[in-house]
Amino acid sequence: MTTTGPRRGFWCECWTQDLTEEERPALLASFDAYSAPEADRWVAVTLRTISPALDSDASDVAWAWLSQGRIATRQALLRSEPCTVTITQDQTRITWTIRPAIFLTLAHRQGTELPACAHDFKPHTPD
Q: pTM of the full predicted structure?
């Protein structure tokens, strides 16, 4: 039983890629945002947090997005368009993606009795 219907929002991801290797990008983090401001704020907070550690070129790109690019990103999100922000630090490319999404509400388990086997579960301990 669901408590509400589908909800519009944005699916946000942060990907990293080592440019010296021939490997695919790796998902570093993901976030579900329920408004355009919340989605672009996730990227902005991250960029502000890492900016002191960036080289001057990457820092310039980060602050250009924070001061001007963020406006265009917010406007695109309000039109339900996907957005990408990318910076390159040394040999690492960091890419944030924001895509419109519809989130389905999951059924809650309040007041529902779990099956007996649920209590038999024991977490695996390493050998």
A: 0.77
- Distance between CA atoms of residues 114 and 125, nearest Å: 24
Burial class of residue 116, CB neighbours in 10 A (0-12, 13-18, 19+): exposed
Query: For residue 10, what are its two tokens?
Result: 């944005």
Q: Which position has the token pair 């957005």?
A: 83
Strands 83-89 and 26-33: unpaired
First vs last C-alpha separation in the chain: 40
- Tokens 């589908």, residue located: 6
Tell me the per-residue pLDDT of 10-37, one tens digit each, with 9 for 90 and over: 999 999 999 998 889 999 999 999 999 9
Phi, psi (degrees; rounded to nearest 5) at 43: -70, -45
